[in-house]
Structure formats: C-alpha cells, structure tokens
Design goal:
single chain, about 60 residues, rod-shaped, mainly alpha
C-alpha cells in the first residue's frame, strides 16, 4: 500500500505541472488589444481637451 502512495506523488506532480503549463501558455492577446484601444481613446480625448483652462472649482492659476 505504501508503494502505491509513493507512486501517486509523481502522478499528482505531473498533473499539477500539466495544469500549470496550460495556464502559462494560454492566449492573452485579447487583453492587450483592449488596452491598446483604451489608450487610443485616451490620446484622442487628450488631444480634444481644451488647453489653458482649469477645471471648475480648482485653485490652479492658469
């Protein structure tokens, strides 16, 4: 019985390694595309923002 337990340890290690390997090699390009689109929208908004005006209620001197 103890020999069976000792043989199960490498089996569980191999299963864990397979799960970890599939997690590491997953496709993560969708998140990059969404972040790049968000950055492009941010740049467009900053280009359209009026320059030289302070937001309402701020104490900034322009």
């Amino acid at each position: 019985m103890t020999a069976l337990v000792w043989l199960l340890i490498p089996l569980f290690a191999a299963i864990g390694a397979g799960i970890w390997g599939s997690w590491v090699s997953r496709d993560r390009t969708i998140g990059d595309i969404a972040e790049l689109n968000g950055y492009a929208r941010f740049r467009d908004a900053m280009e359209k923002a009026p320059s030289g005006t302070a937001p309402a209620g701020s104490d900034a001197v322009v």
